[in-house]
Amino acid sequence: MAKIDNIDLGEFPLLLAPMEDVSDPPFRALCKEYGADMVYTEFISSEGLIRDAAKSVMKLDIYEKERPVGIQIFGANLESMLRSVEIVEKTKPDIIDINFGCPVKKVVSKGAGAGILKDVDLMVKLTEAMVKKTNLPITVKTRLGWDHDSIKIYEVAERLQDVGCKAISIHGRTRAQMYKGEADWKPIAEVKNNPRMHIPVFGNGDVDTPEKAVLMRDEYGLDGAMIGRASIGSPWFFKAVKHYFETGTHCEPPSLVERVDIARRHLQMSIDWKGEKLGVFETRRHYTNYFKGIPHFKEYRMKMVTSDHAKDVFATFDEVEDKFADYEFVE
Ligand SMILES: Cc1cc2nc3c(=O)[nH]c(=O)nc-3n(C[C@H](O)[C@H](O)[C@H](O)COP(=O)(O)O)c2cc1C
Questions:
Q1: Which amino acids bring their CB within 6 angstroms of ligand 1?
Q2: Which of 10, 131, 264, 301 has its CA 20 to 30 A from that of 98?
Q3: How far apart are the first and last CA of the chain?
């Protein structure tokens, strides 16, 4: 059983990874509905939060139905991180997660995200201070190390646990790798097998088939899998993995009718959350993916991504349902 403090996530939970511009409340709600055991927000800048920047504050919104949910924040300044803990606490997430893994230059150059892997003492100090500041569980998401020559995750994980971090999710790449090459799960398994470790160790990176999730569970012995890219355009991926866990077989991919229903609900939730203009605009990348593989779909895809009004997008969904109802998806 994987337990983060008092939050029981069951046997080998599947976690929706934090993803900027992807893991917003409507998407998280869909992933939860399709079997994600725990979801995380997109990363939120601590500096943005304390300046009350609208974009950062909006990312704090959570739906009751998506719980347990972790709000992820990033930053490298102790005071800003502590003040943002106070702000985040008010929105009552189940967990506060610290991003020590983002490889993007504009984050790293300020010493935040994966930038902090160059200063493990600061990483530990920030975590300890945040643990002391709140009663909510503090968790960490990070990478193996800064680069191949500085993989320190074994030591880092122990030190974070010692200062009260309640779970650690490890992306099996270094910062230098960005998203290139294959994720290496061996160092993550070494962390898990450290007899001193007792907090959950979640593996992350390249889980894009049910078989890989089984490998992470059975061969690498990790406590759960955090899944990112495989869920984009396929929030039902979590259900597919769970079906495979239970039966050893692949479940049928969702039918066209089910996909249209998901697309409609996704769009409606986005409109309810951020209004028609932004809702229509920001959901485009998702629903076009829902229909990937359908031949001669360009005309409908174009309508979906160029319509500015919800009623036109909904009308396109109706047309797609009529025209392609019998199309059979293969995953
Ligand atoms: C579009 C996108 C946005 C991401 N944003 C975040 C983020 O906000 N916070 C974070 O910790 N990781 C972020 N990541 C990294 C993912 O959480 C995850 O570690 C990475 O994609 C590897 O997992 P995967 O192979 O399952 O996708 C992002 C990844 C992608 C593709």
A1: 17-20, 22, 42-43, 72, 99, 101-102, 141, 171, 204-207, 227-230
A2: 10
A3: 30
